[in-house]
Amino acid sequence: xxxxxxSGVKEKPHKKELSISEKIEKAVALKxxxxxxxxxxxxxxAVKKYNYALLYLKGLGEDPTxxxxxxxxxxxxxxxxxxxxxxxxxxxxxNLSGCMLKExxxxxxxxxxxxxxxxxxxxxxxxxxxxxxxxLATGNLDSADSDLKRAAVLSPNDPAxxxxxxxxxxxxxxxxxxxxxxxxxxFVRKNKITVEKN
Length: 198
Hints:
70% helix, Serine Threonine Protein Phosphatase 5, Tetratricopeptide repeat, 0% strand, 2 domains
């Protein structure tokens, strides 16, 4: 293995047609390289590796993301290949959401976590935590509530999840207070107008 966690795998798919097994192997190796970059805090290179891994998997089997690439035809996979493809796709999307979380690129956190959950709706606590955190940061409190509560069910003792739930609770209280002020202000103005008319 090359220095820095690189396996020496060529990142960009070649023009030469690779077999399904070769594409899956290259995608898995690139995902592992991405994991090494992620662990070392090199999110830019991790993102690059995960994206290249996804390129190798586009169009393989019933990949729901293959519709993104026009002209790519699905290829049949064995049961084992499907499992490896789905596991690798999920990991890449989930880890991309983690990279984007570190960079506070909330729209991309949501997009990548959602792609991961389309592959595995049960997800894992990190997937729901990341998307819930992004929803919270963008003010989508209902979606944040749903995702963070799901993350808490999956990992009840996770301090990061519990911290976000506390922040969510505070933002919801603040939102309700502002909402109450708006509605009470509307009620007072309506009564004032009614009194003036009389």
